[in-house]
Amino acid sequence: MFERVVTYGRMIKFSHSVFALPFALASAALAAREGGATLGQLAWIVVAMVGARSAAMGFNRLADQDIDARNPRTAGRELPAGKLRRGEVWAFVLVSAGALVLAAAMLNPLCLALSPLALAIVFAYSYAKRFTALAHLVLGLALAIAPVGAWLALRGEFAWPPIAIAVAVLFWVAGFDTIYACQDAAFDRQAGLHSLPARLGLGPALALARGFHLLSVAALAAIPFLVPLHPLYWGGLAAVALLLAYEHSLVSAHDLSRVDAAFFTLNGWVSVGYLATVLLALRLL
Asked: How far apart are CA 285 and CA 270, in angstroms?
């Protein structure tokens, strides 16, 4: 049973939950600065996040099974390698989607009403690269709804702070996904798939990724103008910007050998670091 759980975890890259979840929790912390939040609410926010992401990743593996099987980099994934059957993955997707809907229902009626829209957005990414080179922005949108959802879970209404964080997440994800897609540029062209590296070439795509990350930092810089925060926030944001700059220094059009370090390690530090920054800036205010 443990090995089976690990197999499902590898399929959906469960450890990558660290990318969007800290931004959702940062948004929840900002939302709770006046009315507070219960442990139950925070727990259901985490359940909703994990459920939505797990459903999205499982659906992506189903949609891309044939493509993954043809790509040497992804042929060893659980579905093309035969470690899991499609029926098992479909069941996993349905259970995960159900967890999101249940969590939304436990939070408030608005979250429940919007849960089908959230699922539609996170599922849409799996087919975006078949039609547009801007699929990286669609993936960014799929993760960007997390901070908005966390805010709605506690406040029950839309506001500018979570939208600013969502914009930041959208461009942050689009940037690092563009970097990651550089590995598959040649395969994507051959398979008729769309990505910025396949469309523009590696150099211009990496330059555009840098632009995306500049926009992300700019969006996060708007937060103190929307919510009172301790000046420490600016120091934390500077550290995030430096991490992103270092991420770009690790890769170039002529050397993609450190893409994994840029993608996995540094982006985990960016998200966790931003959450720590927000929590400290609220605590010290």
From this structure: 22
Q: How far is CA 53 from CA 45, 144, 182, 216, 251, in A?
A: 12, 12, 23, 21, 27
CA 39, distance to chain mean position in Å, is: 24
Please state whether the predicted TM-score (pTM) of the whole model is above 0.70: yes
d(CA 284, CA 279): 9
SS3 for 209? helix
Whether 180 has a pLDDT exceeding 80, the answer reads yes
Distance from C-alpha of 152 to C-alpha of 108, rounded to nearest angstrom: 8
Q: What's the chain's Rg over C-alpha atoms?
A: 19
pLDDT of residue 263: 75
Token representation of residue 114: 């919007």
Q: What is the DSSP letter of 3?
A: H
Closest Cα partner for 166 from 225, 210, 220? 220
What are the pLDDT digits (tens) for 30-66?
999 977 899 999 999 999 999 999 999 999 999 999 9
Alpha-carbon span 242 to 10, nearest angstrom: 30
- Count of Cβ atoms closer than 10 Å to residue 200 Cβ: 16
Distance of CA 86 to the CA centre of its chain: 24
164: number of CA atoms within 13 Å, CB side? 17
For the chain, what percent of residues have pLDDT higher than 70? 96
In the chain the domains, ranked by start, together with CATH numbers, are 20-34+109-283 (1.20.120.1780)
> Which of these, 208, 215, 260, 68, lies nearest to 198 by C-alpha position?
208
